[in-house]
Amino acid sequence: MQGHGLRGIAILALWGLLVAACAPAAQQDQVQRQEAFEKKVEQVAGYKVPGGIQDLEGFPLFVTPDEKEKDPTKVKRGSSHRYLSLDPPHLDIGITSSCTVYNVNDMVYSKLVRAKVGPQADPFRIELDGDLAKSWEVSSDGLTYTFKLREGVKWQNVPPLNGRELLAEDVKFAFEDYQNSIQRATFENVARIEAPDKYTVKITLKDPNVDFVASIAAMAFIHPKEIKDQDGSWRQKAIGTGPFILETWTPKQGVKYRANPDFWEKDSAGGKLPYLDRAEMFVIPDSAAAAAAYRSGQLDVTPGFGKILDGQQLKKSDPDTIFMSNGSGLVRGNVNGFIMRLDRPPFNDLRVRKALSMGIDRMTMVDTLYQGGYAMSMGTSWIYMFDNMPTLKDWGPNYQYNPTEAKKLLAEAGYPSGLKVDLIDWYYRDPAETVIGLLKEVGITVNRREVDNPTQVTIITKGEYGDMTAVAWYIPGYEADSENYPFLHSKGAKNYGHYSNPEMDKLLDAQRKERDPAKRREILRKIWDLQLTDLPYIWTPTGRGINGWRPYVKNFRPHTYMGTLSCYTTGNNNRIIWHDK
Amino acid sequence: MEQSEAALLTRPVAGLRVRQSRLRGLLQIGRRKPLGTVALFFVVVLVIVALGAPLLAPYDPLYVHRMVGGSALKGPGVATAALPPTIERSPIFVNEKGQGPPFLLGSDDKGRDILSRIIYGARVSLMVAVIAVGMGTFSGALVGLISGFFEGKTDLILQRIVDGLMAFPGIILAMSIVAVLGASTVNTFLALSVIIAPNASRVVRGAVLTIKQNMYVDAARAIGATPLRIMFQHVLPNVTAPIIILASVTMGNAILLESSLSFLGLGTPLPDPSWGNMLGGVSARVRIEDAPQIALAPGIAISLAVYAFNLFGDAMRDIWDPRLRGR
Prior knowledge:
The complex is a heterodimer. Chain A is an alpha+beta fold. Chain A is built from 18 helices and 21 strands. In chain A, the strands form seven sheets. Chain A has a five-stranded mixed β-sheet, with helices on one face. In chain A, strands 1-10-9-8 form a four-stranded mixed β-sheet, with helices on one face. Chain B has one domain (53-324): Orthogonal Bundle (MetI-like fold), CATH 1.10.3720. Chain B is globular and about 80 Å long. At the A-B interface, helix 9, helix 11, strand 13, helix 13 and strand 15 of A face strand 1, helix 6 and helix 13 of B.
């Protein structure tokens, strides 16, 4: 008997030693593998993978351009490209920044400046590229921006514009209109917009904004005056200078486009863009139906996946699919979480917000919803203030699962027997199921009401959501200011939770003016930290976005700034896509 | 001839039946309608399960069980070349005490106990059977009663409205009503009752038209009874049998309709369990071959309930309908 005991202890000790010896070795192996991977990306793809982002087994972080993609003379023209998006409630980007509206705008309209996309672009960073502007310069005081426009750019040949030339006055009109729109965060700082000649636009700011060019590159589509004069808004019609002409838009079904024959751009071999003849965007809200549509050949690109399991299933059924897993949250962008009305009970009480956040077991969400592949994102890109991607642990005590403290805080806030809140959502329905179950354990009963996408967009924009609403979306924008200021400033155009904190306002104003990158980084870090302690929004993990496409689809590449469905780059990417068939 | 006379003598006279014990009567029905009796048994089980859900369910239907082996996944912030569960390797869920999988019917993809969700989901189905069918049949019967009793213009107008409602396929009408009102359990009941009502009104109207011809109605009118009194005192009691039969036959159909609406995301909103949304939610997330229990359990529950109510309704009709009695 004693012998058995001793043997048992010896086995246990040996086992312990083995585990202790293996753990650092495994860790080291992991580190080495990661380093080797990063080196390979840098060599092969020519860009650096931001710190801490790991490769996902079976779903590569990058896909280098193949021979056909490198050589524009091999392009085959004339295909029809079919992809998936969400149902737009209207077509006016001045009312909402929703990607549902953006992706239609991106097909039809142009901007002054745009982001580089496609196989040659760095999928983790924004590189700016002239769109309607062929060049731009900034005055030494950082207040005046002068854009030189391309000459001979024509509006699409559709009444009432009938192919007239785009002039500096058009840009002036569009930008002045944005000053009173939901995009005003960028434009309310504009003192003057002038058009000294037909092809020059001069913009003078009230205060310096180091992110000004990047911010107009993200959102500021140039809309024509004629539609506004005729209809009073751009809600129903879209006629622009972009690569595609909108043919039909059927709510709940989709949008059909044909190539704009007068589009100004040519590829490096002098060939006309876009390469496609037609493009068709489908609205399929049910993810199973969307996956089935891809499987049966009705779509050329897959729906975006947040779950590794979905990707694995598709890989099994459609092994020829090319995958890329940089779709979301890794650098920025995709956020899942709650917007609460902070100007009234119960969420005006920080203790209640803390209780809600601490009641969510985020790692269980990661395990069950995303099978371990996840990102924590608050919409603000970590890349602006950290060298390595912050992990959940770095998010501080309010983001750690702590049911005991959550119950205590609820009781202190006056809800000892529990709290009932209403939740209106559509985007978040899958994680909502888990979160509602988890919150019930700490005494928060969430009464969920489901609406459709257009309704949710309207409800959020107007702030008419009762206690709280949930989002699973991309923060639009290409730089720190657009990601922070509109959502967190008390006067911000997208301050959907009615948040007001003078300290936050001060920091937001300061980062805008700070031209020293190191000092700005510090301010942005303070904004990040204040979000973690004050909880103006409560974030939950997001799945690691995986996109896939058929091998015949050339030049399609997801970008981590653009959403899992590439929603914020639809037109920009579609203008160079072609089908090898 | 002698034999038949003997048979005649031994045959119980009408009065004797009353003296039979209730139990014996029930047993006799049970022997005559074995399927109906089994159906009744299932209906009773459904009622007990629905009413006793908090006592019977092993877990809270929303409780998210934690996943075993999560530590391997809980590595550095962005994972992971480590070991995420794959299609071949299903995750195992545990409760807060770390106990292994005690789930009788397995767990769903979110780590919730399917049995508990089925038990709580029975409440929605039973409520549909009682509330939606009750509301629909009652309002339909009222319309049918008024329509049949007064005839003339009242009948014409009411029945054209009923025609209008009947022109739509039931599920389409329910979907449009829910689309306008918003998806919720209460709105589903409303939508279903709107579908059920026209049929009830037709059946009751027909019965009222026949009963109105009876002498006792004329007699009541002759002694000066008001139309309201005749309607509720003399006509209504005589049409209760068709109303009850109709309600019991409709219940199965109503459960199926509610499940269809919830399946389409237009009924009970997730995460509250209803059999339809359990079935609908899973089709969007998990392939049936990977985790068959998630779809099979609510599917079987729906089938059983619908069969039970249908067979029970048929038996009720057979017993109550004088033309079918004794067959």
